[in-house]
C-alpha cells in the first residue's frame, strides 16, 4: 500500500476529495513542506481507538489545579533551546 503525500494547503482546499480516497482504502501522508507530520488512514472498526472521556463530575476545574513551582535554572533556557536546535539533523 503506497501512501500519497499531500501538502497542508492542498488537503485544506480539497479535503472532501482526499477523505473519499481514504474511505476507499488509500492512506495519505500530510506534509508540512517536505516534512511528514501526520498520516490519515482508513478507519478500522477492529483497531484500538483512543476514547476521550469527560472529567468526573467531582474533578477539580482546570483553572483550580495548582501549577508546580517554577524551575530555577543556572542557564538561560532560550540559549539551551537554540543550542539544541543547532545540533538536530
Short description:
The mean pLDDT is 88. This protein has three helices and three strands; from the N terminus they run E-H-H-E-E-H. A hairpin with a 2-residue loop joins strand 2 and strand 3 (35-40).
Describe the 3D structure.
Strand 2 and strand 3 form a beta hairpin. The radius of gyration is 21 Å and the shape is flat. The relative contact order is 0.11. A 3-stranded mixed sheet has the order 1-2-3. It is of the alpha+beta class. The chain starts with a strand and ends with a helix. It has 3 helices and 3 strands, in the order E-H-H-E-E-H. The protein has a domain of 43 residues: YefM-like fold (3-Layer(aba) Sandwich), CATH 3.40.1620.
What topology does this entry show?
Elements (H helix, E strand, L loop, with lengths): L3 E4 H6 L1 H9 L4 E5 L2 E6 L36 H11 L2
Parallel strand pairs: 1-2
Antiparallel strand pairs: 2-3
